[in-house]
């Protein structure tokens, strides 16, 4: 699986392209989360694969419960890649989660 693409406007700026690609390749989208899954639970599941910069579970503003998806950003692309391979389809809080590279294009 490949990381998200670099916007055409940035192709003329190699440093910007490197920074954006690196961030896109180290940030994962996690779908299929239980509505009871919170950030500490998500972090614990993913931190075995490397150092994490940020964990975010997207929640409903009214109930505070998870909307069923979130993001995990690792310090390294290798850690993100390993986590994606190892955790995609695995059980977390009673649900099979889906793990993809986060799309920086939208």
UniProtKB/TrEMBL annotation:
Keyword tags: RNA-binding
Keyword RNA-binding part of the UniProt annotation: yes
Stored PROSITE patterns: RRM
Keyword Oxidoreductase tagged: no
Superkingdom of the source species: Eukaryota
GO molecular function annotations of the record: RNA binding
Pfam family, one: RRM_1
The RRM domain, residue ranges: 26-104
Protein known as: RRM domain-containing protein
Taxonomic source organism: Papaver somniferum (Opium poppy)
